[in-house]
Amino acid sequence: MPTTATSAVDDSHDVYCVIAASALPRPRVESIASGARWHHHRTHDALTQAAASGLLAVSVDAVGTRAEPLDADHARRAADRLTTHEREEITQRIAGDFLLRATAAERLLTPWRNTARQLRTPDPFQFHDAGAARQWLAGTVDDLARLVEQGERDGRDAFVWQVVHAFYPHWRLARPLTLARQVHERALRAAQRDHARIGEQEIRTTLAAILRRLGDHRAALTMSAAARESALQDGDRRAQAHATHQHGHILLASGDPRAALSYLHMALTMRRDLYQDAHDHARRHRGAGADEVRTYRRAVGLTLTSIGVAEAATDPPHRLTTACRRLRDAIDILQEVGDEHDAGRALAHLGAATAARGHGRSALRLFDRAEELFSRSGSRTWWARARLMRAQTLAAAGQQEAAQIAFAVARDGMGPDDEAGLAAEGVSLHH
Questions:
Q1: Domain annotation covers residue 65
Q2: Per the domain annotation, does 260 fall within a domain?
Q3: In-domain check, residue 248
Q4: Three-state secondary structure along 381-400?
Q5: Quick check: is 197 in a domain?
Q6: CB neighbours of residue 58 within 10 Å
Q7: Helix orientation angle between 141-154 and 84-109, rounded to the nearest 10 degrees
Q8: Is 58 helix (H, G, I), strand (E, B) or coil?
Q9: CA dist 142 to 17, 63, 137, 179, Å?
Q10: For position 390, what pLDDT does the model report?
Q11: What is the total count of domains within the chain?
Q12: Rounded mean pLDDT of 395-413?
């Protein structure tokens, strides 16, 4: 397919062929531009011409512009007239651009995250703010599923696991858990076929977290144990600490805080050692590796949060004082590294522990702070969960009317996957 057109008619024909050959039924303008190797303005003009000719329907949503062939049979014939090489090139260019955009969103929303992906092409795209990045991820998740399917059919295993891995902020904040499980299971198989050991370990650990949130604790423990064993065989201390933390977190969610604490303390020791090593390296090399320092510092904060929650769930009651201290330390660390979502989680858990100590008013103020952080970070489900903790605190204080309102708001903010995960933890959404 030509990349240099001599007329608007040629451009409208070529852009139609790109759309017809795409794995996406309604590709976005940036995907079309990448498939055609054109700049945005030329692509937009070609789309306008093709729509005026009755070939395409063009629509605009919160993320941007989409285009769809009006006659599916005609589009299929247009794609068939391209050579196999041309179709493959279009598919790969669209997939490559999509992965770069997902990675740009990931880096903006989770800058502390170590990535198993080594992308050789510099990222040419930046979102103007976190809201735009979250909106793009949410608005393209159907495209992700399509591109994963196409990647599997074409044998592009590296793309499959990498693009699922790059969507981590969406799985973390929006939590479409059933879809997340499906694509991570496919990504795991792809990483294994790609012999990408680090990718396989990270996908396993993320899948363990997803299974935990869905309430499938047995499968989650199997997955995290496999990730730990793989990391141990490879001598990967970071992956081993990550999987150990997740194993303890799953045990905590399954209702066994005492067993959880043994793994969480192991993870804390490993993560503190990793942080210290990274900190010493940065000091010796004039700040080189500062990103790793922040990554490992945040990891310490996450494990302190889980330890605090586990200690609050065990006897004797004096553990609550220790739990609150752990949670306050976690909040300080997580706010220091800029992780508002997880700082909010630690605040919500501190609110619950403070309420359990009989300080209801202080607990409600902590829930206020947690909900503010969840609102800023776009974490809908955890905002609702903090509201649920607030409802439980109000009910325990005898403020039944206020508690009923808070319970109702919490239910409205959660989806079926969230409710299933909470039910598996023995948490009711009903007052």
A1: yes
A2: no
A3: no
A4: HHHHHHHHHHHHHHHHCCCH
A5: no
A6: 16
A7: 130
A8: strand
A9: 22, 13, 10, 10
A10: 95
A11: 1
A12: 90
